[in-house]
Amino acid sequence: MSKLLIFDHDGAVDDLLSLMLLLTMDHIQLKAISITPADCYPENAIETTYKLLTLARKTDMQIGAGNYYGINAFPAEWRAKPKVLNALPSLINIDTSLQGQIKDSVDVLVHTIRSSDQPVTILLTGPCSNLVFAIEQDKSILQNIAEVIWMGGAVDVPGNVRTYNHDGSAEWNVFWDPVSSHKLLTYQLPLVLIPLDVTNMVPVSMGFLKILALQSDYPLSNLAGQFWATTIDTIPSYEYTYFMWDILAASYLGIPDAFVLEKVELEIQPNGHNSGQTFRKPGSGKWVQMATHVNKERFYQYVLQQLKR
Ligand code: AGV
Ligand code: CA
Question: Which keywords belong to this entry (predicted)?
Answer without folding.
Answer: Glycosidase, Hydrolase
